[in-house]
Automatic annotation (TrEMBL):
InterPro entries with a match to the protein in the record: YARHG_dom (IPR025582), YARHG_sf (IPR038434)
Name the record gives this protein: YARHG domain-containing protein
Signal sequence residues: none
Domain (YARHG): residue spans on this chain: 150-231
Source organism: Winogradskyella bathintestinalis
Name of a matching Pfam family: YARHG
Length: 232
């Protein structure tokens, strides 16, 4: 099923909004103000074709994690590679305003001709390269689940802060796999022929793409890596 996409473009003179390639009225956009903040959690799809991206937003304790997942064609090789933008210091106020160190915006709803509302997130300074600084973009919340994006046996190491008691019940072998699986999810290239290289190359979801992935790690993943090391 084709994912619903909303793009908004602005200029100094006129306002034109696009949803799935069709122009929409600004009056059909309203703020999305749910009863509980956690209702904003989910995957938001932006753009289309090579410019498309997914923004994963979820809550874990006192942490709000937001991460953009997109891709690019690598120069010289022509290989399509995954890319991640991990937002930091995310906050959401009572009026649905979204802020972070990198990007900001507003949670909104779009009223369709049928009268049905579609929920989304408007980013005022979008990460999409072809959109100028004076324009903004809206991504619609999809039905994609956390486990559909964060693959592996130990996806919990990326979804919540672990505790030392549960880790102490695991074998050192499993702890090592859990820790390295965090890096593998980002396409980290392990030492060729090594234990981790042999293990992850057998996983259908794994693709060796990057020699360095530390810049992609979230607050939760950084915390868990250090905790796992202590338990190991």
């Amino acid at each position: 099923m084709r994912i619903l996409i909303i793009l908004l473009f602005t200029s100094n003179l006129t306002f034109a909004q696009y949803w799935g390639g069709q122009e929409i009225n600004e009056s059909d956009l309203t703020d999305w103000l749910p009863k509980f903040e956690i209702e904003y959690a989910g995957t938001y799809h932006f753009g289309e074709s090579e410019s498309e991206s997914d923004f994963q937003l979820f809550f874990s304790g006192d942490c709000i994690i937001g991460q953009v997942q997109n891709g690019y064609w690598e120069e010289n090789t022509g290989i399509w590679k995954s890319n991640y933008i991990t937002l930091t210091n995310i906050s959401i106020d009572k009026k649905g305003k979204f802020t972070s160190d990198q990007h900001s915006g507003q949670f909104i709803r779009y009223k369709m001709e049928s009268g049905e509302y579609v929920k989304g997130l408007r980013i005022n300074n979008p990460w999409t390269s072809w959109i100028s600084d004076s324009e903004f973009e809206i991504g619609t919340r999809t039905k994609i689940k956390f486990e559909d994006i964060y693959y592996g046996k130990y996806s919990k190491a990326s979804s919540r802060k672990l505790n030392i008691d549960e880790l102490n019940q695991m074998s050192s072998k499993d702890l090592k796999l859990m820790r390295n699986e965090i890096f593998a999810r980002y396409g980290y290239t392990f030492k060729k022929g090594g234990e981790m290289d042999k293990y992850f190359r057998k996983q259908k979801w794994y693709r060796a793409q990057h020699e360095k992935v530390e810049q992609y790690l979230t607050e939760i993943e950084l915390y868990n890596i250090e905790l796992i090391k202590k338990s190991e």
